[in-house]
Design brief:
alpha+beta; two-stranded antiparallel sheet
Length: 253
């Protein structure tokens, strides 16, 4: 795990920050960042296909719920990639932006190199398990930091709820929730600290992980990344404990 003060770039707490991990769906922070940097026309739509959905469903990937033939605006795809962690949304973004997932993954690895990351390598856009798809909590923190410098990415990573545009298939718009943010905002007090953005991940091999950003009571920005939690509940508790202990105010303890 790693907790850093983003203002001064100093480490507040760490344990094995440079150990190789499987990032699972924390990968989607990089997917969203590359997409937000490359999308030129946010009014464009992408027509979802069964060819995208079926293999992901069979791989037990998490899906946002877009369906075959649905015309999805670019912004809704990025929200769909982050809030419900939809793998069909990341594949659609890859095809829309780069023509194929392979070409988009090349962009992700190029962005990793541009950020100076030396222990990160991507094989897909969603974080499905692959031996050659890896990172470290330290480098995931740097990816999240870069994503939060992008206004659109910040808006999406910080959203607790979102309703996608109305489509023929979803006349009321597809509802999405960032369950991690929803829970930390409604169920926990963090001694005055606040978690403002987050992306979780899970695969059997990666176990439960999460990258989050927040603020201390005196307004300092922090970034926290944890990995290898046995359950989603433990993953949330890791973040709650770190923010409460290191980022909360002594007065409110």
């Amino acid at each position: 795990m790693l907790l850093i003060d983003a203002q001064s770039n100093t480490v507040v707490a760490e344990k094995n920050p440079d150990a190789r991990i499987y990032p699972a769906s924390m990968t989607k922070v990089m997917t969203a960042l590359v997409a937000c940097e490359k999308i030129e026309n946010w009014d464009d739509t992408f027509t979802m296909t069964q060819e995208i959905i079926d293999p992901l469903y069979l791989a037990d990937a998490s899906l946002a719920g877009f369906v075959n033939g649905e015309k999805v605006p670019m912004l809704d795809l990025v929200y769909g990639a982050i809030l419900p962690s939809g793998a069909e949304a990341t594949e659609a973004l890859a095809q829309a932006v780069a023509g194929s997932e392979e070409a988009f993954v090349t962009m992700m690895n190029e962005k990793a190199a541009a950020l100076g990351l030396t222990s990160t390598h991507f094989m897909n856009t969603s974080g499905l398990h692959d031996e050659n798809h890896y990172s470290t909590v330290c480098e995931i923190a740097l990816i999240l930091q870069a994503a939060l410098e992008n206004e659109t990415c910040t808006e999406i990573l910080s959203a607790e709820n979102y309703r996608a545009s109305e489509t023929e298939q979803h006349p009321d718009g597809l509802a999405m929730t960032n369950k991690f943010l929803y829970r930390v905002h409604h169920e926990y007090a963090l001694n005055g600290a606040e978690i403002t953005a987050a992306k979780t991940g899970y695969t059997a091999e990666a176990m439960n992980c999460c990258a989050s950003a927040g603020t201390t009571p005196d307004g300092r920005s922090v970034i926290c990344v944890t990995a290898n939690a046995w359950t989603g509940e433990f993953c949330i508790e890791d973040h709650i404990a770190l923010y409460t202990k290191y980022c909360g105010s002594a007065e409110s303890e």
